[in-house]
Amino acid sequence: MYVGRFLVVGPDVGAYRVSSRSFPNREINAREDALTVGPTADAPETDNPYVAYNCLRIVETPTGETAAFGNGSHVDPIAEKLELGYPARDALAGSLLALDYEKDDYDTPRIAATIGDDGDAFIGTVREDALLVERVDEPTLVATYETDTPEAFEFGAADAEAAAREAYDLEFEHAVCAAGVARSEPGDGSGFETAIVNDD
């Protein structure tokens, strides 16, 4: 089954995967302040505005660190609102509503999630017909197609590397690359670790 881009988030761990039929020549790279999806060196040129973006950022908030991740440019305003002290729910809802679903041929939803270093996690999506933001207390998945409403999902990863690998290896079609994030030591406020899996 093809579900497009998707993310999974639980209270302590999360993952984001790029799945693509149209733009498979992409990878995730670690920059100083973000994990960034972008074209590979051999990718055909495109003017599609949705191909490259920061998919994961970890920011310092007034109450500690928070990880924000998702499938597009809305990750940046979510992160910026978190830094300003917005509650995670409000940062997600405000940014998703402001940027709205992607104005492409498929009206692709935007999806996003946050994990606080206290284990407070949220997931959200904005579609053509709805804006949904929910608190998460068990692993939950949302995708751009098919599963575009958050739903409980079996996800066993306990650290960032395992999360990226498990997301990449899930039997949804057209895997391209994946990122994982986890609280380094759940419950002790020590921050986050991240990991990347690019096309094998």
From TrEMBL:
Protein name: IMP cyclohydrolase
Family: Belongs to the archaeal IMP cyclohydrolase family.
Encoding gene, per UniProt annotation: purO
Enzyme class: hydrolase
Residues annotated as domain Inosine monophosphate cyclohydrolase-like: 2-184
Protein EC: 3.5.4.10
UniProt pathway: Purine metabolism; IMP biosynthesis via de novo pathway; IMP from 5-formamido-1-(5-phospho-D-ribosyl)imidazole-4-carboxamide: step 1/1
Keyword Kinase annotated: no
Keyword vocabulary terms for this entry: Hydrolase, Purine biosynthesis
Species assigned in the record: Natronoglomus mannanivorans
Pfam families (UniProt xref): IMP_cyclohyd
Example GO molecular function: IMP cyclohydrolase activity
Any single biological process term in GO: 'de novo' IMP biosynthetic process
Function: Catalyzes the cyclization of 5-formylamidoimidazole-4-carboxamide ribonucleotide to IMP.
Protein's UniProt keywords contain Hydrolase: yes
Reaction catalysed by this enzyme: IMP + H2O = 5-formamido-1-(5-phospho-D-ribosyl)imidazole-4-carboxamide
